[in-house]
Amino acid sequence: MTEDEKTNYTETLFESIKHINEYGQEFWYARELQETLEYKRWDKFLNVIEKAKAACNASKNPVDDHFSHVGKMVNIGSDAVRETEDYELSRYACYLIVQNGDSRKEVIALGQTYFAVKTRQQELIENFDALGEDKKRLAIRNEMKLHNKSLAEAANMAGVTERIDYAIFQNSGYKGLYGGLDRQGIHDKKKLKKSQDILDYMGSTELAANLFRATQTDEKLRNEHIVGKENANRTHYEVGKKVRQTIAELGGTMPENLPTPEKSIKQIEREQKQIEKQEK
Predict the structure, then answer these.
(1) Is 252 exposed, middle or buried (0-12, 13-18, 19+ CB in 10 A)?
(2) CA atoms of 69 and 30, how far apart (whole Å)
(3) Which pLDDT value is given to residue 21?
(4) CB of 216 within 8 A of CB of 243?
């Protein structure tokens, strides 16, 4: 299994058992997570839950906010039912559970990666306004990496299969968003060196516009079952153009006219790693 295949499999595995309550909040049932994590006995899994609750308490997070004890009525045959113990778990609770699970299980390792990444993303979203510009750029750029993979998959499904075709497809989106400029045109406009990637030299506002372009094109290709390279290119261009139109209607600055940051994303990443190293 390739890394992309493993990522897609992991997403499907844990997203498929996710629930949304009446307030729009996501949660997982412990019983369903138990099966997914390949624990045959509830009492064994309950031990892991108790360890996770202890870790939650130690991190100064209210346990009841993340581990909500519920009773579920289950059919036991002959029209008889009985109440079964269960929990509604937050994403953070699931993260703590997989961290305290049997690390010998491959599915536990997959869960550790999935919930660690998703929990961190959620933290960034919730605290986005409090972040400085550098961290905002890092957060959005990391989101771009994930969504560009999904966009590439959607484009491939539409018939964009060759590398040269995908380059044309990407340029179609850029042309729509940047008033006719393709990747090279944006590169020249920013006065970047040959080795410098345009996405690494975008501020948070410009990155956000590109993230919106990518996510909306991805959804449109999939939802409308668009087929054919030309149709895919046209779709990407039209979505980019619509994002540009929205920026104009809101009185914003066109992306090609936004300032180019002095630091690259790679430089910020190196600085962040150095800070984290010193803190440890």
Answers:
(1) middle
(2) 10
(3) 85
(4) yes
